[in-house]
Design a protein that fits this description.
The structure is a single chain. The chain is α/β, with parallel strands linked by helices. It contains 9 helices and 8 strands. Strands 1-8-7-6-5-4-3-2 form an 8-stranded parallel β-sheet. α7 (180-189) links the parallel β7 and β8. The radius of gyration is 16 Å and the shape is globular.
C-alpha cells in the first residue's frame, strides 16, 4: 500500500501538537520531520527537542529527514526523542555512508539515504542492501513549496529496477512538489512513500487530499 507522510514543515508552527495529532485522523501513515542545520541547506528548522515535544501527540512513525552536514551526530538524539526512521543525504560530509546506516540500525531505527535531484542513482546502488528506504528529492532541499522536477520519474524507475534485481523490499520515498497529479506519476513509476506538505496542510479537506494522493 502507498504510504503518505505529510511534512510538518508546512504545518502551523504555533499549533504543532494539534497538527501532529490531526494526521492520524486524516489518514496519514507517517509524520515527515524535516531537519535543516543552516549549513547543508541555508534554513534552520527542527531539532530533537521538537521531535520530543510532538511525540506524545501521535503514535504514527516519525520519519526524520536529516538535511545536515554530519548526520551521525544526530542519530542518538533523535532516537531518544522518539524518532522511528532516519534518512540522511549521500552528499553530506559524513563520507562513511555504510557506517552511518549501521549506526541507525544499531539504535533500533529504520534507516536510509537521500539523493538530491542532480545526484545519480548510482551513488546509492551499493547501499541498497543496508537501506530500509531511499528518499529521492524531487525538488532541491531547503525550502518548501517548490515545483516537482519531472526528471525524478526516470530516477524512480531506475531505482525500482535496481531494487527488484536484488529481490529487496526497499521503500522508495519521494519528497517535493507532491500533489494529486505528480503523486499519480510517482506511484506509476514505482514510488511507495509520498511526502506532501503544502498539499495536505493547506487543503480545505486534508483527509480527502490524503485519499487522493494515495489513490
Amino acid at each position: 500500500m502507498i504510504k503518505i507522510a505529510p511534512s510538518i514543515l508546512s504545518a502551523d508552527f504555533s499549533k504543532m501538537g494539534e497538527a501532529v495529532s490531526n494526521l492520524k485522523n486524516w489518514g496519514a501513515d507517517w509524520i515527515h520531520f524535516d531537519v535543516m542545520d543552516g549549513h547543508f541547506v541555508p534554513n534552520i528548522t527542527f531539532g530533537p527537542s521538537m521531535c520530543s515535544a510532538v511525540r506524545p501527540y501521535s503514535d504514527l512513525p516519525i520519519d526524520v529527514h536529516l538535511m545536515v552536514e554530519h548526520p551521525s551526530e544526530w542519530i542518538i538524539p533523535f532516537k531518544n526523542a522518539g524518532a522511528d526512521i532516519i534518512t540522511f543525504h549521500v552528499e553530506s560530509a559524513d563520507h562513511h555512508l555504510h557506517s552511518v546506516l549501521q549506526q541507525i540500525h544499531a539504535a533500533g531505527l529504520k534507516g536510509g539515504v537521500v539523493l538530491c535531484p542532480a545526484t545519480p542513482i548510482e551513488s546509492c546502488i551499493h547501499l541498497l542492501g543496508d537501506c530500509d528506504l531511499v528518499l529521492l528529492m524531487s525538488v532541491n532541499p531547503g525550502f518548501g513549496g517548490q515545483k516537482f522536477i519531472p526528471e525524478t520519474l526516470e530516477k524512480i524507475r531506475i531505482l525500482k529496477k535496481a531494487i527488484q534485481a536484488r529481490n529487496l523490499n526497499t521503500d522508495i520515498e519521494i519528497d517535493g512538489g507532491i500533489n494529486p497529479e505528480t503523486a499519480r506519476a510517482c506511484i506509476e513509476a514505482g514510488a511507495t512513500v509520498l511526502v506532501a506538505g503544502s498539499a495536505v496542510f493547506k487543503a480545505s479537506d486534508p483527509s480527502d487530499m490524503i485519499r487522493c494522493l494515495r489513490s
